[in-house]
Amino acid sequence: MHAHDSHEQTWDVIVVGAGPAGLSAALMLGRARRRTLVVDAGRPRNRFAAHMHGVLGLEGLSPDELRARGRDEAAAYGVAFADGTVTRVEDAAPGLRVVLDDGAVLTARTVVVATGLRDELPEVPGLAERWGTTVLHCPYCHGWEVRDRRLGVLTTSPLGLHQAELVRQWSDRVTVFSAGLGPLDDDREHDLRARGIALEPEPVAEIVGDGTGIAFVRLADGREVAVDAIFTAGAPRPLDDALAPLALRRAETPFGAFLAVDEMGGTSDERVWAVGNVADPRANVPLSIGAGSMTGAAVNAALVTWDTAAAREAATWHRVAPADYWEERYAGSDRVWSGRVNRVLADVASSLTPGRALDLGCGEGADVIWLAQQGWQATGIDISPTAVRRATAAAEAAGVADRARFLAVDLAALPEGEDDLVTASFLHSPVELPREEILRRAAARVAPGGHLLITSHAAPPPWSAAAHADADGHAHRFPTTEEEVAQLGLDPAHWRIVTAETRTREAVGLDGQTAALDDTVVLARRLA
Asked: N or C: which end of the chain has fewer CB within 10 A?
């Protein structure tokens, strides 16, 4: 699939990277029935090698074949794949925003980073183009294939000495090009020579041979040393730049700075895991597969914990009386809302002739005060006495107390009256409300020729049939067609739907931060 095809849904997990570690994690997550997307840049670390070795049950298999099998196995459990390169992973609380190089923006509850690393080779002519064929890095992966041949070890750091000692196990014709080490102490030099290892301190100038083969190594002084293959350790550079916006903790290792992870791959951000060579440069294919499996299980376990907490909270809200919930919310904070008018209300009301208006769930009164400032006689109703007190004070401070009044009333027991505009912006309340009854009473207050405006700050609203059912399995509906108007007990002959749509807007929080939000808007007009 293309990444743009998946931008509208929030994934449980986005796995970045489709090497052994990433595919193994994805397989576990798919089997755990998690909505999982793998973003594959198509550049695994071992792409230069024709075969893998030391992988039990898969000895000699090509890396490409392993990846193809892994993709098929994960896809069989519903894991989706998208080609692309992730350029940024950003905070989008409670989840994460994942940005791709083609501009696609995805969202996920969690991210598993399995992007691997890049081997930064010494700048020696003829070295890079032979990487993975006759220029090798791991004697366990490639030593058997070049056993008993003339082998060179091009050192780049003190770790190169350990590599030289290992390579000697596969051949007794080993030359160590030691210029990258500097002078060796006498004991270490004696140990190497005692094993029959030749030492060449002159810097390497060039690798020479036909095609990917090697005939000899040319030294800086012009001498030539015959070898058939070279082992060297490039500097490992983890491919984790996309995580920079999250400022994850790092750890210093003998190989450089890598992401700090726990035994399951967890990073300093509870939503992000890192596995494989991006976190451990020593990990070979079997270790990466095993670590990916454990990380996939750890991510699912975390999601299970969060799902349980959310269900517990939702069940608690269902038992809490709406008046108690909202009063506790308002009383527990100096201010809940920004004090700005709801954008949808402003757009709609600006096109109407001011008259009498009723705002259901008025909160701290911003919408009622704005309506009063536009010439409306506006009444706000809320079930929280604290919210009503704040709204009354705000109206007095704004100089519109004569046109804006507020009542602490249960929304299901509205007072008698008639209004030209009845509006409600917060029927997506997390606690259980008798929404159908509230909507019927609200509609009954609309004067002939007047309007009923309902805005839910979610799409679809969590109380709609598409997104929610109550404890008895009865879906909450909102009138978006004449047929549904009739279901609410209203006469379709007297009502018309003016607008039923989803609008995206930029919302500003109390902290000044902005976020894109979807509003579901329904505007109905009562016919005269």
From this structure: C
